[in-house]
Amino acid sequence: MITLEHIYWLSGLMMAGVAIVNWRDRSNPRRFNNSAFWGVYGITFLVGTHLPDLVNGFLVIAMVLVASIRGLGQGSHVGDTQAEREASAKRWGNRLFVPALAIPLITVLGTVIFKRIAIHGVPIVDLKQVTVISLAIATLVALAIGMIMLRPPLLAPIREARRLLDAVGWAAVLPQMLAALGALFAIAGVGTVVSGIAQRWIPLDKPFVVVATYAIGMAAFTMIMGNAFAAFPVMTAGIGLPLIVQKFGGDPTIMAAIGMLSGFCGTLMTPMAANFNIVPTALLELPDENAVIKIQIPTAIALLGANILLMNFLVFRR
Predict the structure, then answer these.
(1) pLDDT tens-digit readout, 250-299
(2) Tens digits of per-residue pLDDT, 45-84?
(3) Would the pTM count as exceeding 0.85?
């Protein structure tokens, strides 16, 4: 059976490759920092599930120390010239989108098909993680398609992974760290505190008001935390489950799905989501570091309003 552990191994091997490429790049004055950072990150994927929580915590602290001491840097990148890239784009045209479009297509197909395939009664994938596993398989298939189409050097994928990760820097691990922080907040009872504050100051005796509070709270808490996965356990424990589900009998599946979409609206409006909103401005060398956020705010507000109405219409229909 293919499990989430196998996906962790793939991620760990990629991080290990990035660390090795960084180690060998003498043009990068901070190559040892980069190698240590991505190498330790790779260890958390490769053997993290077999290590005590305390050891994993020390590995995270080690990553923070490495990123704090002199920071991470970027080395030289030898690739195609601008003229070569333009010539390749003209040659392939829209076919260049085939590998990228293969990822969502194969992910959806895998999510549906893998649930129905079993060997001697045992599913070939962990059904609890079928979507994530399908995404990983789709990524590998897309990589194979790209390699066959473009025929780059065999080490091109890991070198490009290194280039992108070095450009993004520590922000690449931000979603995972913030999701873990959200879980800690939930364990610490922050959701109960949020629920108490909301019930004290907001009249939560009407379903629509509760839905609006939950959706807006998801967006607002996401803006503070920088990640909807960090906001979800807090707002769901504080507002979603006790009020929408238990008090008014709402559907928890619909609530969770639209609640996450509401959180993503907050992602569009915050610099805390650095990997989404700040890194692109740096990669594109835009003069205003908040340019991406300013463009996204109107869309985010409109989507949040639509999510509130959609949740109110669907979550109580049983």
Answers:
(1) 999 999 999 999 999 999 998 877 767 777 776 666 777 788 888 999 99
(2) 999 888 898 898 899 899 989 888 877 877 766 666 677 7
(3) no
**CA 55 vs CA 14, 72, 95, 113, 187: distances in Å:** 22, 23, 46, 38, 20
Q: How far apart are CA 68 and CA 266, in angstroms?
A: 28
